[in-house]
Amino acid sequence: MSAPKKLFIKTYGCQMNVYDSERMAEALEGYEQTQSPDDADMILLNTCHIREKAAEKVYSELGRYKVLKDAKPDLKIGVAGCVAQAEGQEIMRRQPLVDLVVGPQSYHRLPEMEARTHNGAKVVDTDFPEEDKFEHLKARPKAKRGPSAFLTVQEGCDKFCAFCVVPYTRGAEVSRPVDRILTEARDLVERGVREITLLGQNVNAYHGASSQGEQSLAQLIWALDKVDGLERIRFTTSHPNDMTDELIEAHGTCDKLMPYLHLPVQSGSDHILKRMNRSHTRDSYIRLIERIREARPDILLSGDFIVGFPEESDQDFADTMDLIREVNYGQAYSFKYSPRPGTPAAERGEVDAAVADARLQELQALIAHQQKTIQDSMVGREVDVLFEKPGRDAGQMMGKSGYLHAVHVADCTAQRGDIRKVLITESQRNSLAGRLV
Ligand code: SAH
Ligand code: SF4
Ligand code: F3S
Question: Which of 141, 130, 13, 30 is nearest to 80 (CA)?
């Protein structure tokens, strides 16, 4: 057998891309991963199209590979993910270095595509195939891995928010069958996984087939709850309209379900929410948060916000700031609106860029303050930490609390994969420090 070739994968965008990258690396037989593009035989960029900046990064990264390809003409360069889906062939016109373009729904065909590039062919596949890619991917390896894993259970989106490319790049909403997810989860546990984050662009809209008929996300969570050795369950990203009663209830009754929920609202203004086609209101969101907190009072809430959406007035923005004050987030992602080709909002006038920048700064300052206050409130508490890896200092271990705070413990006797009680002694910039109890 010849020595394995080297594969360098760079991942952009959301957790679903992280999962896909893992699956693509496993699918490409004869390759082992390298941490640097310099010694790679194949470079694969798994890309994100959500904002213009995200998409443009890909081209500047590709430009850097010219010297590598000049030095090693056999080097294969591929573009996968949502930019691949959105731009297809166009990528090769803009950057002739690229040998291969593969969309997020057809990467099970990657091995044969890679083989075709050896004859110098340029290969593009951005189909939305009938077949389920997961069924056609090579079985996952049995090798040990880290204690926390992503598992995609649902893909695509039918919601068509006016700003968003996901329904176009990932296609219609599809749920994987329950038994396949359970099998994959058990295999992950055998490999050392203790925590699984269920992924979907609209994960709480999950409705997978099973022998007992269609199952909801809450039912899937209860099925996973019975998997021995699996200690923690999370899910992301949820849409407010799909937070069902049984899912809210599970947050209060399922011990393995962690007290953290990412529930994007995007804006606090009803006018803007309507123009975004979000189909929830400010009020319905706030009432939903109240119900979730009734079920699980200590839950840490996270959100996504877009500022500078077309027509956003000072008052609309003030409404968003009010909503943030009312909810009190432990964590949030916020973005300046980026018009995306092909989406309805891209046809509308834009808010002045300087105004949008100022709003983003103001919003991020408020979120940072809330985040820090909630993080600081952990000092003096005992929390369960799942230890993931050694920290920067000798003897130090790093892990995550149920609230997803990073926790460092010095002179730590816990091993990777252990869940141990930690007394939090200090709140640092982006993490907590503590000692084993
Ligand atoms: N499915 C998830 C979000 C997927 S995209 C949901 O419905 O919440 C992740 C985040 O990117 C979104 O929540 C939104 O805040 C942001 N986003 C999406 N399109 C954007 C755009 N055109 N400009 C700026 N931010 C955008
Ligand atoms: Fe995009 Fe809206 Fe679908 Fe989320 S729900 S992926 S923001 S279209
Ligand atoms: Fe980006 Fe595609 Fe995820 S556009 S956010 S990588 S679904």
Answer: 13
